[in-house]
């Protein structure tokens, strides 16, 4: 009976049409009005990473950031965005590899996770940009607090620290580096442009809107100030170069007779970022960059300290890092690991006097027949002990932890976008590096902390 029923239905359908007709499709209808009783919180999964970021920020002490808020109860003024929101936005953006304030502001409107963090609070790129680089001291305190929390939980340790440097491209082009004479001409042109712009706006206020005129004045004044700073830096570098030259009493080469070789060696500074320096990068090329130093615990991999320099060499960077960790945590790490680029004898001597044992490879001597681990006649007791120590199997086993710690930290930072700074100046660059270190510790907290 069932078969007969289906046969009748097939007969009712009629014969297949000759040729193909228009396909029947489900097309989007974006003008359809819908009523949905949902909240942002319901749209984010319970295990979403953005919730972990907010939970981490809730555990931070942000009293230093709250202290700078002028809008208080009983007084007029527009209330600013909660510092906890801004910290959470930048931490989540850093984890996601977002380093642009404009891109972050756009995501706060378009991306569901960032909208969840905002919770209806509007933020613009200027607020985000200023907050990111305007609280360097507070960020250092937050980094120390994050590492201290891991110490108190027994996850991290200060027994052994691995330090490494990473050269990060500066926000300046190679063509922006000028010599002193060129910078003086740039200064004259910048000052002339500022004067001319002021005169134009005073003569014809209607030539541009008030906002456009203010923006043009700020741009011209910023250009003049950067050129002034670049000229001061170039003059200082040139004076230091001349002092080193006189001290070394280097003979004058044939090309110096007409001053051409001297001109080529003349110190230069960038009109875009006067504090940036040309450094040798990991790929062998030379570009404007900053030297970011990260010190991490070999037990947990968490970052304990950050410093930024505009010197390409790592030589002499161990002592400042060890000295900075002492007041932050109340003690110096007794063991300090670094690669061969940090092997400065004065640093090893200074660290030994402070009770810190350095594990740094001994450089290969020029004389290939000499044992590099054998003490030399002019070695101090601390340096002689370092040479002999690095020849032992125990020191070699300890030193292997350096790459597993420091290289991993650098790789994580680069994966999160620490390849090119979008800000200028040592203070702002260090603030960005601190955001990366704090985001690294936050991610390590998720992985290492017990559930």
Short description:
The chain is of the alpha/beta class and 451 residues long. The chain has helices at residues 2-13, 40-43, 49-58, 63-66, 83-95, 101-110, 112-118, 125-133, 136-152, 180-203, 210-248, 260-264, 318-329, 345-353, 381-389, 393-415, 426-448; strands at 160-169, 177-179, 268-270, 277-280, 286-297, 303-309, 335-337, 357-359. Strands 1, 4, 5, 6, 7 and 8 form a six-stranded mixed beta sheet that branches. A two-stranded antiparallel sheet has the order 2-3.
Can you walk through the features of this model?
With 451 residues, the chain is an alpha/beta fold. It has three domains: 40-70 and 79-133, no CATH class; 136-172 and 276-426, Nucleotidyltransferase, domain 5 (2-Layer Sandwich); 174-249 and 260-270. Helices cover 51% and strands 10% of the residues. It contains 17 helices and eight strands. The strands form two sheets. Strands 1, 4, 5, 6, 7 and 8 form a six-stranded mixed sheet that branches. Strands 2-3 form a two-stranded antiparallel ribbon.
What is the share of helical residues? 40-55%
Q: In the CATH classification, which architecture of the largest domain applies?
A: 2-Layer Sandwich
Main β-sheet: number of strands, strand sense, barrel status?
Answer: 6 strands, mixed
Terminal CA distance reads 63 Å
Structural class: alpha/beta
Give the CA-based shape: globular
Average residue-wise pLDDT: 84
Residues in β-strands, percent? 5-15%
Describe this protein with a few key phrases:
451 residues, alpha/beta, Nucleotidyltransferase, domain 5, 3 domains, two-stranded antiparallel sheet, 8 strands
